[in-house]
Amino acid sequence: MKSDVAEQPTKKSRGKRIKARMPVHLESGGEGFTKDISVTGMYLVQDAKQEVGSHVKYTISLMTPAGEFRLSCEGEIVRVDADDNKVGLGIRVVHQFGANMIFDQLKLKKDELDKL
After folding, report:
1. What are the tens digits of pLDDT across the range 64-90?
2. Which of 95-105 are b and which e, b meaning 16 or more Cβ less than 10 Å from the residue's Cβ?
3. Which helix (H) or strand (E) holds 80?
4. What angle do CA 39, 61, 20 make, to 5 degrees?
5. Cα separation of 75 and 92, whole Å?
6. Where are the chain's structural domains?
7. 46-51: long-range pairs with CB below 8 Å, 24+
8. In DSSP terms, which residues pair with 91 in a beta bridge?
């Protein structure tokens, strides 16, 4: 894949990446899946080319012991890898909505299981 990477003035820790394939729905109507994810970003594989520096809104579907949750995020595209079939996007998370709710629900489920 050919790569376009944004210049970054300082290198910041991007957090530990976890290899995980989760469905992603882009607000623009596109669909894709994560290749890896961390607290600060993710690598998304999808069909439509995007530009480095663009902002995207997306939802990640997470299956948890408490059921399915959707994490809504805004991110900035910092890398684009393109070939003939797919486009890989490095996305830096700018804002997350609902992360606290997911962790609260998981804690409630754990508390329920601990009572058994």
Report:
1. 777 888 888 899 999 999 887 889 999
2. eeebeeebeeb
3. strand 67-82
4. 55
5. 5
6. 18-115
7. 46/86, 46/87, 46/89, 47/86, 47/87, 48/87, 49/80, 49/82, 49/87, 50/77, 50/80, 50/87, 50/89, 51/77, 51/80
8. 42, 77
**What single letter denotes the amino acid at residue 105?**
Q
What's the burial of 52, exposed, middle or buried (CB within 10 Å: 0-12/13-18/19+)? middle
Pairing of strands 23-26, 18-19: unpaired
Phi, psi angle pair for 112, to nearest 5°: -65, -45
Residues with Cβ < 8 Å from 87, sequence gap 6 or more? 45, 46, 47, 48, 49, 50, 80, 81
Residue with tokens 């210049």: 7
18-115: which CATH topology?
A: Thrombin, subunit H (2.40.10)
For residue 115, give the H/E element and its range: helix 99-115
For residue 92, the model assigns a pLDDT of 94
Q: What is the pTM of this model?
A: 0.69
